[in-house]
Amino acid sequence: MRFIDEARIHIQAGHGGHGCVSFRREKFIPKGGPNGGNGGDGGSVYVEADTNLLSLYDFRMQRSYRAQNGMPGQGNQCDGKKGDDIIIRLPLGTQIFAESPDGEEVLCDLDSVGVRIKIAQGGRGGKGNEFFKSATMRAPRFAQPGEEGEEKNLRLELKILADVGLIGLPNAGKSTFLSAVSAARPKIAPYPFTTLEPNLGVVLHENDIDRRMVIADIPGLVEGAHKGVGLGHRFLKHVERTRFLVHIVSVQDTSGDDPFAAFALLNDELALFDEELAKKPQIMVINKIDLCTANEIANLKAKADEQALTLYCISAKEKRGLEPLLEELWRLQAESPLQKPLVHPHVPDEDTAVESACSVDFVYTYEK
User: Residue 227, SS3?
Assistant: First the structure.
């Protein structure tokens, strides 16, 4: 299933049923009073967060949702049946915007599991003529029509909820790292922009199977990402709700007078996109150390010490240096607050899961 993080849909709440005009007519009661029943209310439209969903793909396929209309009233004081509500289930982390000629309005943010929010009210049913009976009006010959249900055009935007956000330049080895520490199997190839869609990996703690950590692999970012260069604005939004960031740089990008310039470049992009994003705790990682010598690694660490930087050197391909890094991830997960409540994704059945050599759980990835 292809990963889709934005969609537009149209919703229509049900219309209320019309009230009934009716009079009691029986064999020995030729002039009975009014007995028209009320119309039923129209069904409303609700949205609900569902952890079994991780993409808005289905909403590119079906774009229109309509609740049931209320039934009209009938004679003999019979009220019409209420229309059925509809519940639209959306991935956790979906924001819902109502579109109008004047712009957009935020309706709700599905940032916690099980939340059910009404976004379109069904129309009220009309009153039957019995409702209008009074001492001065014994035989009303009119009834109230049902009200129309609310109708809205919505824009859905998904922002992934995760503990860890992996960021870095293209071809830094983020997907290789994700596959090394989790059961995720993202596409990996030796060229930039292999990853074009976010991937999620779920890691289990080695000593506590109840502890889980969700890692989001974000496609590579380039200079000007905050302006949308390389679709950066579409990718950056997915790290807004993470606890902290893991900034991965290839050892091949550490040459020159300032070996840490790649870290500074993307930190500037984070700050320009969202100042709060740049303030998140961050772990600096140099990947692909299998491509350099021990002396070169020692020089990098020495320069990091001179600048009071904490640096982790790993080879995700050869799974070297991962244990100290994972320990730091678990420590930060315990200490770093979440901007939004995080509930871990639904875990598939064991027979459909892919196991990894590390202490991991399962993963959701998306294929085009």
Answer: helix
